């Protein structure tokens, strides 16, 4: 986390310019830090929103929901949805990133989620044997459940699939005696914000994120 005044920033930049860093992520913690960023015209890329729910219920068992098993036939479907889930990502909205970098990041994210390197499981919603939505999650060492990626096929949006996916994750949390569920999105992602509010989540934290490109 970065908390600095203008005089601190100038000293800090002297060190940065001597390094090989190309990009620095800045998370300002107070208004004076934000003023410094504005003064030097460092762009706000996104506002990260963390939602929390700690009153967890068990819903009915849902049809069309299952854990994902990696098959050649449907891997392309879930990979496309993973890329869709990042449409408001700072790695996409910052024009100084190339699409190649963004696609590579989200392809790796879903790949490592499926292999369970960074996720406990990936849950999919299927219709006519085709994947129409998915959600990944991780139960961490603090016994909190953290939602990773979530997306619904554009042709099926508005039909309650996102809510079903979130409720399915909540069922897992209930069964495993998880006390807290966390999920994050961007302030610009109004659809995701509405989904989490409708599922009973509350905002735990706002965090503005700035990108400083050095080279």
Written account of the structure:
The chain is globular and about 60 Å long. It is an alpha+beta fold and 215 residues long. The chain has 2 domains: 6-42, no CATH class; 50-206, 3-Layer(aba) Sandwich (Aminopeptidase). Strand 5 (130-139) and strand 6 form a beta hairpin. The chain contains 7 helices and 8 strands. Helix content is 37%, strand content 28%. The chain has helices spanning 6-17, 31-39, 72-85, 90-93, 99-114, 161-175, 190-198; strands at 23-26, 44-53, 65-67, 121-127, 130-139, 145-152, 181-186, 202-213. Strands 1-8-2-7-6-5-4-3 form an 8-stranded mixed β-sheet, with helices on both faces.
Keywords:
Aminopeptidase, 7 helices, eight-stranded mixed β-sheet, alpha+beta, globular
Instruction: Please identify, by name, the CATH architecture of the largest domain.
Output: 3-Layer(aba) Sandwich
Number of helices: 7
Please state roughly what percent of the residues sit in beta strands, choosing from under 5%, 5-15%, 15-25%, 25-35%, 35-45% or over 45%: 25-35%
Largest sheet, strands/sense/barrel:
8 strands, mixed
CATH class of the largest domain: Alpha Beta
- Given the C-alpha coordinates, what overall shape results? globular
Structural class computed from helices and strand pairing: alpha+beta
What's the total count of β strands?
Answer: 8
């Amino acid at each position: 986390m970065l908390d600095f005044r203008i005089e601190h920033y100038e000293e800090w930049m002297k060190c940065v310019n001597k390094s090989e860093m190309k990009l620095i992520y800045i998370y300002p913690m107070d208004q004076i830090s934000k003023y410094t960023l504005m003064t030097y015209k460092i762009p706000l890329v996104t506002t990260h929103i963390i939602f929390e729910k700690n009153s967890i219920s068990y819903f009915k068992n849902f049809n069309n929901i299952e854990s994902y098993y990696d098959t050649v036939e449907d891997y392309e479907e879930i990979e496309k949805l993973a890329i869709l889930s990042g449409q408001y990502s700072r790695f996409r909205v910052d024009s100084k990133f190339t699409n190649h970098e963004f696609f590579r990041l989200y392809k790796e994210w879903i790949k490592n989620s499926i292999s369970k390197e960074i996720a406990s499981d990936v849950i999919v919603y299927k219709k006519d044997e085709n994947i129409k939505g998915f959600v990944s999650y991780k139960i961490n060492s603090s016994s909190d459940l953290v939602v990773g990626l979530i997306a619904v096929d554009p042709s099926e949006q508005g039909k309650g699939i996102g809510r079903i996916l979130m409720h399915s994750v909540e069922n897992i949390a209930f069964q495993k005696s998880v006390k807290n569920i966390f999920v994050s999105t961007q302030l610009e992602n109004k659809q995701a914000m509405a989904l989490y509010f409708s599922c009973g989540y509350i905002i735990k934290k706002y965090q503005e994120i700035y990108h400083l490109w050095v080279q």
